[in-house]
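A reminder from the course coordinator: this example appears on the midterm review sheet, so study it carefully.

Given structure:
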């Protein structure tokens, strides 16, 4: 999405893997970036192309789901980092007063302190050259179809419900009184764990959101609190650590690349793995991974929501990582790891799995069967162990009667239930998450895991009997 006029350029830079939106604003040779990602060269190139100087870097809050590029970008561009009221940082930043205004060419950006998602959460109102409100950059305060979750940054004695009430007050005192034609540009869209009901649309008018957003339609503060806090899942493990990095600083992404872009022969790769205890992370396509991989490696494919799943499943950001990637994908893997604070990649397998096999090193496989083959097995053996690793809400909406709900998000909690002498059939929605789960179980000694290719979508097409969430979830067979 981009908007251009003689006096104003606004570009939404959307990153699907993180469901994150950064913004580039330019007017008369001056530019601002809102909520930049960790890798900052693209912003510098945009400004250079426009003949503009990046004047400000606006942060809507201390992000928890990704590491912002504000520090590196400020160092490379000379721009000032702006946070809203109450923010406290360990690096130079301008802490704006509520209502404070900043000029970018012919445009004005006004600070609207909107706590609730976090205490320092701030919405930035952009006014055109006539002073007319044009759009808001709402961060995680207001999404399309949702509002920010209020449970991530509770302070002192404040509860999640207290924060939700604060969010209600912020919306009604600072945002909902703006003109209906004002555009809403949020920090996230569908797929982000920062909300629970986000639309696939990445911008909208405020007036339309008043009509369709469940949270904005709440008829009272009490109803808003109840609806916003209902059904919130626990945040991923890495959220608190990313928020801390954004608040206190981090290693330069250039240093992360210098350390991680370290090509290793199979012999050197194996030696370094043994020496450091590094986690072997294979980022190839799930079905390609299944046909041959280094024993004990874990598959999280680059072609899915790679960064959020790394953050959810690898609980130690300091864990050394060694990568197995498709040729030419090394830099992409490092970039996407750095976005969520995983800065300790120490090398990658040069030549990939082909070089490993050519060196005579052992490989392992995971059996992957079609949904039709699974149906045939289930017909003959109705008591098999079949695991559905989708999220609880997906399972409750619709699932196979014979499957057990074992969400991938919580695999570190339920792995101990698995028995090494049993066979487990695993599916998700489409096959991405099931291979992650199968690889983790395999690495932990559960050797007999079978992936169902195509996941629930393919299973459903076979006509297998289904039920809805009114049927009680089955307990794990002993």
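Designed residues:
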């Amino acid at each position: 999405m981009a908007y251009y006029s003689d006096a104003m350029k606004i570009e939404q830079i959307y990153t699907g893997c993180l469901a994150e939106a950064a913004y580039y604003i330019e007017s008369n040779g001056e530019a601002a970036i809102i909520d930049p990602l960790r890798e900052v060269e693209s912003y510098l190139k945009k400004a250079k192309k426009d003949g503009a100087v990046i004047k400000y870097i606006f942060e809507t809050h201390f992000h928890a789901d990704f590491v912002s590029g504000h520090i590196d970008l400020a160092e490379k561009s000379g721009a000032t980092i702006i946070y809203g009221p109450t923010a406290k940082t360990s690096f130079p930043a301008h802490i704006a007063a509520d209502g404070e205004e900043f000029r970018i060419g012919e445009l004005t950006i006004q600070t609207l302190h909107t706590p609730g998602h976090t205490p320092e959460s701030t919405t930035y109102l952009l006014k055109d050259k006539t002073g007319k409100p044009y759009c808001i950059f709402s961060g995680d305060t207001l999404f399309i179809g949702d509002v920010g979750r209020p449970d991530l940054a509770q302070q002192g004695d404040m509860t999640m419900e207290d924060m939700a009430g604060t969010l209600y007050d912020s919306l009604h005192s600072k945002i909902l009184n703006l003109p209906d034609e004002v555009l809403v540009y949020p920090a996230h869209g569908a797929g982000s764990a920062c909300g629970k009901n986000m639309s696939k649309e990445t911008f909208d008018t405020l007036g339309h959101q008043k009509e369709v957003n469940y949270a904005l339609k709440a008829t009272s503060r009490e109803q808003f609190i109840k609806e916003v806090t209902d059904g919130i899942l626990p945040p991923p493990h890495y959220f608190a650590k990313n928020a801390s990095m954004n608040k206190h600083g981090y290693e330069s992404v250039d240093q992360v690349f210098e350390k991680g872009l370290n090509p290793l022969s199979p012999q050197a790769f194996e030696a370094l793995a043994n020496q450091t205890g590094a986690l072997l992370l294979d980022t190839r396509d799930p079905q390609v991974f299944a046909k041959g991989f280094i024993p004990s490696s874990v598959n999280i494919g680059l072609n899915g929501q790679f960064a959020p799943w790394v953050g959810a499943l690898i609980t130690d950001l300091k864990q050394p990582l060694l990568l197995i990637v498709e040729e030419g994908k090394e830099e992409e893997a490092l970039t996407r790891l750095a976005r969520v604070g995983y800065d300790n990649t120490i090398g990658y397998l040069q030549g990939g799995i082909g070089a490993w096999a050519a060196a005579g090193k052992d490989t392992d496989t995971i059996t992957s069967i079609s949904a039709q083959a699974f149906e045939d097995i289930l017909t003959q053996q109705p008591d098999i162990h079949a695991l559905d690793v989708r999220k609880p809400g997906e399972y409750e909406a619709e699932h196979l009667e014979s499957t057990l709900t074992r969400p991938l998000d919580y695999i570190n909690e339920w792995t101990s239930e698995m028995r090494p002498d049993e066979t487990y059939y695993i599916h998700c929605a489409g096959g991405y998450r099931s291979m992650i789960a199968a690889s983790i179980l395999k690495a932990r000694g559960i050797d007999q895991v079978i992936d169902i290719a195509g996941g629930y979508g393919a299973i459903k097409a076979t006509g297998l009997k289904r039920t809805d969430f009114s049927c009680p979830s089955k307990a794990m067979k002993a």
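The mean pLDDT is 93. Residues 2-239 form a domain with the Metallo-beta-lactamase; Chain A fold (CATH 3.60.15.10).
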